[in-house]
């Protein structure tokens, strides 16, 4: 069992409406069911973050396809690690859409990238919590004594 987390952005003109996201989720979950993959796809203002769990080879092959998909870009793998249990065992792929400003979405991506760069062994679920937290500061707070 392995877990993969990556971030990406919708390519220009893609995923502008609910239908295209629903279609992406149904194709992905059908394929994942066959491959015994499970996970979660978060979408916020054109940014994706995806967690996929499953057998190592199926995960590698699926991520290969995902990387070749030109409906998204700036694909950055944040973590690919062996794990002992699935984070979302009942979801072959579920999408959660967060409605917010582009600034807030950028801030989420900043926070999750920072969480993994500070700690590459971070467990995926902690990273997703960092992503889901609504108001994480984007910089270290200034000291009051300054
Ligand atoms: C953000 C994003 C997430 C995706 N997630 C998955 C996934 O979890 N599983 C999957 O099989 N395909 C996923 N896809 C779709 C693949 O990139 C690919 O289009 C699909 O598997 C069909 O591949 P094929 O045309 O080579 O058969 C995702 C695509 C995007 C843009």
Quick rundown:
By secondary structure, the protein is an alpha+beta fold.
Overall description:
With 146 residues, the chain is of the alpha+beta class. The chain has one domain (2-132): Alpha-Beta Plaits, CATH 3.30.70.100. 39% of the residues lie in helices and 27% in strands. It has four helices and five strands; from the N terminus they run βαββαββαα. The chain has a five-stranded mixed beta sheet with strand order 4-1-3-2-5, sandwiched between helices. Helix 3 (102-118) packs antiparallel against helix 4. Residues 141-146 have low confidence and may be disordered. The site of flavin mononucleotide has 17 residues, from helix 1, strand 3 and helix 2.
The low-pLDDT segments are 141-146
Order of helices and strands: EHEEHEEHH
Adjacency order of strands in the biggest sheet: 4-1-3-2-5
> Shape from CA axes?
globular
The distinct bound ligands, ions and cofactors come out as: flavin mononucleotide
The average pLDDT value, as a whole number, equals: 86
Counting DSSP H or I runs of 4 or more residues, the number of helices is 4
Query: What's the story with the biggest beta sheet?
Result: 5 strands, mixed
- Based on helices, strands and strand pairing, what is the structural class? alpha+beta
Topology:
Blueprint lengths: L1 E9 L7 H18 L2 E7 L2 E8 L1 H13 L3 E11 L11 E5 L3 H17 L5 H9 L14
Helix pairs in contact: 3-4
The chain binds flavin mononucleotide (FMN).
